[in-house]
Amino acid sequence: MNRKNLIWGLLVALAIAAFLSPFASPSPDGLERVAEDKGFLHLAEGKELIHALMPDYVFPGIASEGLATSLAGLVGTLLVFGAMYLVSRVFVRPKGNAGKGRS
Known about the structure:
about 100 residues; extended; single chain; mainly alpha
């Protein structure tokens, strides 16, 4: 994939994250729903093992819930893009150098 397509893909992903994430379902996710239905959700509440940067997909410190959700979507998209870009740089070889190693 060339750099121009990569940038366009990132821009489209950021636009989707910014404009559609406020419309995401407010219903609990699958695991939380099962915990509610089976009656053991209270065992997990208040016992945070890892401090979440954006708990419940909302960017902290912003009063507007829609804006906080959009920012969380943007930050999450950038973090995932950055992580996958680094992984691809480490593990994916360019087609022209297959079998020759990195130089």
